[in-house]
Amino acid sequence: MDMISDIPWQMADDWNQVLLSFKAVENKGKDKLTELFCIAKKIQKNYEIISEPMESLCACTCVNCEDICCMRATIWFDFKDLLYIYFATGKLPESQIKKITLKNQIRTCGCLTQKGCILSRTERPFVCTWYLCPAQKEYLKQYYPERLLDFEQTLLTIKGLRNQIEEAFVCISF
To answer: In this structure, which long-range contacts are made by residues 16-23, counting pairs with CB atoms below 8 Å and at least 24 apart in sequence?
Structure first.
């Protein structure tokens, strides 16, 4: 059994409290939530723009990687991820992402399979999109320098929108 770490909302009761807090804000009235829905859709659109090029990049670089970030890093949904997902889709993920231990005792993200991540790009935590490893950056610089600039701009846009959705949620909450 995996130990509890510093990842927030790992226990079912904690996760349910997150859902209840989102529902409480939602119950304040749909008219107050329009901005949240609008920002979430803008985030989703930017994820969709970057999704296919990111998948292509990962297909070229991750398959030969000896230090796979999905195995090394501890990944979880942060508050801004949950805001985006909830107001873009109307639901939260079933649970927080957990790190699991494989048969060979290697710990990895619970969403990683032999074929890659089970989550679509639009469902993943932001860190799974904004982090470009050195090999990916080098690949882009060498073969697609304009795509690197596009990635960086799109990621900055998503980051700004994530801040906006959090600010708007906090304003509605109080």
So the answer is: 18/82, 18/92, 19/92, 22/82, 22/86, 22/92
State the residue for tokens 């749909």.
30
Among 109, 113, 92, 93, CA closest to 101: 109
Closest by CA to 77, choosing from 20, 172, 162, is: 162
Query: What's the CA dihedral at 151, 153, 158, 162 to 10 degrees?
Result: 140
pLDDT, tens only, 10-46: 999 999 999 998 988 888 877 889 999 999 999 999 9
Distance, in Å, from the CA atom of 104 to the CA atom of 27, rounded to the nearest integer, reads: 47
Q: Does residue 7 contact residue 76 with C-beta atoms inside 8 Å?
A: yes
Residue 70 · residue 117 · CB < 8 Å: yes
Report yes or no: 92 and 18 within 8 Å, Cβ to Cβ: yes
